[in-house]
Specification:
The chain has four helices and two strands; from the N terminus they run αβαααβ. About 45% of the residues lie in helices and about 5% in strands. The chain has one domain: Photosystem II 12 kDa extrinsic protein (DNA polymerase, domain 1, Orthogonal Bundle), CATH 1.10.150.320. The chain is globular and about 45 Å long.
């Protein structure tokens, strides 16, 4: 039982401190960001179907997300390899 609790704690801590990859994150992962709820997460996913984020500043292309949002979440964001945009 202790092992299970310890494993859960480690996985939770890893998730809490891992950066959110805006090119590959799930809706739930996006919603862990400050100021990003369900509707804005959906907007990111919709944008991502046709576009690839080259850097985190490109989040400002998504309606409802601007420089203040990016600044507030800068440490939690990363733009990894794009796998969802059309080529």
């Amino acid at each position: 039982m202790r092992l299970l609790v310890l494993a859960t704690a480690i996985l939770s801590a890893t998730f809490l401190f891992a950066a959110v990859d805006i090119n590959n994150a799930s809706k739930e992962e996006l919603m862990t960001l400050k100021g990003l709820g369900e509707k804005k997460a959906d907007a990111v996913l919709t944008y991502r179907k046709e576009n690839c984020f080259k850097n985190i500043e490109e989040l400002s292309e998504v309606k409802g997300l601007g420089p203040k949002f990016i600044e507030n979440n800068k440490k939690e964001l990363q733009a990894g390899k794009c796998q969802t945009a059309k080529k």
